[in-house]
Amino acid sequence: MMEFLVYYLLGTFGLLIIYEIIKCCRGKECIGRFLNCGAVTLLVILIDSLRSVVELIVSHLTPYFIPQDVNPLWKKYGNWAVVTGCTDGIGKHYALELAQKNINIVLISRNIDKLKNVAEEIEKYGVKTKIIVADLSKGTEVYQHIEDELKDIPVGILVNNVGGQYDYPMPLCEVTLAKAWEIINLNVVTVTTLTRMLLPAMVARGQGAIVNISSGSEAQPLPLMTVYAATKAYTRSFTYAIREEYANKGIYVQHVSPLFVSTKLNSFSQRLVDGNILVPNAATYAKSAVYLLGRVSNTTGYWIHGIQYFFITLAPQWMRIMIGHRMNKDFRNEHFRNNKVTAQ
Ligand SMILES: NC(=O)c1ccc[n+]([C@@H]2O[C@H](COP(=O)([O-])OP(=O)(O)OC[C@H]3O[C@@H](n4cnc5c(N)ncnc54)[C@H](OP(=O)(O)O)[C@@H]3O)[C@@H](O)[C@H]2O)c1
Predict the structure, then answer these.
(1) Mean pLDDT on 213-234
(2) Strand order through the sheet with 208-213
(3) DSSP labels for 262-329?
(4) Pair (239, 286) in one structural domain
(5) Between the chain's N and C termini, which has fewer beta carbons within 10 Å?
């Protein structure tokens, strides 16, 4: 309702501006009319910023006022979750957090030994696990096996977490085609295929949750991480669209856009690996993100990332692209310095 009202107001003011400009071009009181346009434009900017503030508050503060476990996740969505890329980083801690909420976990990742270790850790919480070994960078060939393995499991929550990134920031001509395909397969093909695979049964049951782990890099193109950011823009678009398509089928679709988290994905920068108040470790991050599951539709997953995201997205896109480029040049130089190689 609030969204509708804001769009309605923005639309009305947009038309007003056009109307004032047309009138101004015809009439004599040009200066006065231009001043009117200026005031209206300012109002539009203010309303748009206000909308961002409202969104920020709704996304990041209201969840904390909703009492926990009024309706536990397993009851709302079902007691089996699938987590992809669950043997390390954010995915591993999502799986551990969900297990603590009495949810059985299907673990999908590429390394059998790591999968067994995580399964053992998870089972300490008294839930069941199922392991599926799959190299998700291989593209479509791996999904028949996954579908066969999942056919008897009523999956209530799908956490599309697996993701790939460059080894360090680089311009496109330095990215091998194999690496580009790996990233596209992990970040785009997996989200699309698993969602398409598991959604029909959720719709038939009238309940289910799809959680798509995107990245703050979806907010604008990101030079030196071009392919990665573009895949995350796909995730955002895909997530927002299916949410709308299945809004009245009992399906909850969440878009999670983390900023930096200290995991091996960022091993090109020691500063990111070490972490700090802005760069939480995966356990802290996932605890917060799982707390927000079912509470908000769009989130960065972590309060301080929410504040950062809010301020970042206030800046115009061209400025964010420029700053992102500088930041990545900095990380690239750090990587070359640490590896005693000269940047080209
Ligand atoms: N970390 C950040 O700063 C950050 C920021 C924004 C968004 N994200 C997103 O968050 C998600 C998780 O990232 P992360 O930082 O937790 O990454 P991570 O620490 O590198 O963990 C990635 C997980 O995916 C698994 N995996 C990697 N390649 C695979 C493949 N080919 N087939 C199957 N499994 C594979 C890894 O398995 P192994 O254990 O075998 O390596 C690991 O379990 C990604 O979608 C990423 O884009 C991360």
Answers:
(1) 98
(2) 129-133, 104-109, 80-84, 157-160, 208-213, 251-256, 298-299
(3) BSGGGTT-HHHHH-BTTB-BHHHHHHHHHHTTTT-SEE-SSHHHHHHHHHHHHS-HHHHHHHHHHHHH
(4) yes
(5) N
pLDDT tens for each residue of 65-95: 666 556 899 999 999 999 999 999 999 999 9
pLDDT of residue 1: 44
Categorize the per-residue pLDDT at 302 as very low, low, confident or very high, splitting at 50, 70 and 90. very high
- Among 228, 285, 302, 309, the one annotated catalytic: 228
Which residues partner with 158 through β-bridges? 82, 210
Alpha-carbon distance 285 to 308, whole Å? Answer: 15
What's the rounded Cα separation, in Å, for the pair 292 and 257? 12
| pTM score | 0.86
Residues 123 and 22 grouped into a single domain = no
Share of the chain above pLDDT 70, in %: 82
Residue having the nearest C-alpha atom to atom 47 of ligand 1: 163
Instruction: Say yes or no: 142 and 215 in one domain.
Output: yes
Amino acid letter, residue 108: I
pLDDT at 2: 46
Q: What is the tens place of the pLDDT at every residue in 163-201?
A: 999 999 999 999 999 999 999 999 999 999 999 999 999
Are 164 and 302 in a shared domain? yes
Q: Residues 86, 111: one domain? A: yes
CA distance 51 to 64: 20
The CATH number of residue 128's host domain is 3.40.50.720
Co-location of 161 and 12 in the same domain: no
Active site residue 234: no
50 CA to middle of ligand 1, Å? Answer: 35
Structural tokens at position 92 = 């591993």
* Residue 24: pLDDT over 80: no
CB of 110 shorter than 6 A to ligand 1: yes
Residue 50 belongs to domain spanning: 2-60
pLDDT of residue 304: 94
Q: How far apart (Å, rounded) are the C-alpha atoms in residues 115 and 133?
A: 8
The Cβ of residue 152 has, within 10 Å, a number of other Cβ atoms equal to 7
Distance 187 CA to ligand 1 centre (A): 10
